[in-house]
Amino acid sequence: MNFSEIRAVVCDADHTLYELSSQEAYSKMFSFLSEKTGIKKCVIEITFKEELRKLLSSPEAKNPEKRKRDNFLKHVLNKLNVKFSENEMKRAIEIFWDEVCKTLEPNECVYDFLEKTKKKGITLGIFTDEFRENLIRKLNKVFGEWERYFDFLITPEDTGEMKPSEKYYEKILKITKHSSEKILVIGDSWERDLMFAKQYGMITVLISEKYEGNPDIYAKNFCELLKALRW
User: Which of 109, 156, 174, 205 could anchor a disulfide with 217, C-beta 3.0 to 4.6 Å?
Assistant: First the structure.
């Protein structure tokens, strides 16, 4: 495989470019909701998880509007017969994201990889099922201004679907204007990030502690990826 012909690199974001944890963020959000509604925190948490399980196993699982955190939270509170002001809803979501951003950590050698990729004149992009506003917030926290490295973002607002979806790869081809064999796609999940990319003829890279699927390159981190690409 000739890696010198690569003209575009497109990366998943969460757990690929950086690590994060949402456990404490959910805990604090549920505590805030409990304080404001008088409903026990454990009841809110159980209802939230049960409704999420139902959504993810339903035909609406890929519907971005159903998956938006504020919309879903409103649905959960409606299930609990709770009236919640718009300002309180925004505050609950803000508490969640403030806590998530505290946990963000760039993955090993990711800065070095991005710098070397940019120096080669290769187009860099992100494809993710995180919504644009939240994605930019996370990227700016990890990388400063996201435009420093990345030329474009593909989010559910662009595709109208959550991952896994072929629409992400159609967007990648349309934006980069490169043939599929010149596009490198990096992700931490075979099914969600790489399966369709492989079908489209793109070069696939799985970055994970656990091997799965049939990627063209497997690496545990970006240090190993740089060695595999000989960059």
Answer: 205
